[in-house]
Protein: Adaptive-response sensory kinase
Organism: Puniceispirillum marinum
Amino acid sequence: MRIFIPLFIFFVSLLPSLASAHQCKLENGSTEAILVYNSCKADLAAGMSQHQSDARKPRSDRELALEDENLQLRQKLGAIRNDLLDILRDLPN
């Protein structure tokens, strides 16, 4: 139990940085995808996003590959987060 709470806090603390590393596209209807999308929209509304400057320059194959890898890693992180939440729910109080 002692190890799961710090891990949970660590993964939750990563969500804001992950949200700022993507374009505002809703990938699926999962809770994490909606959270990332909403964070992105909030960044855009607050003027804290650099999406507009990213759209002006052409993207290399390397950048596109890294974005794909980023998406896959975000999905893995979401799966790990959900697994940790399931474990926490199964623990006796």
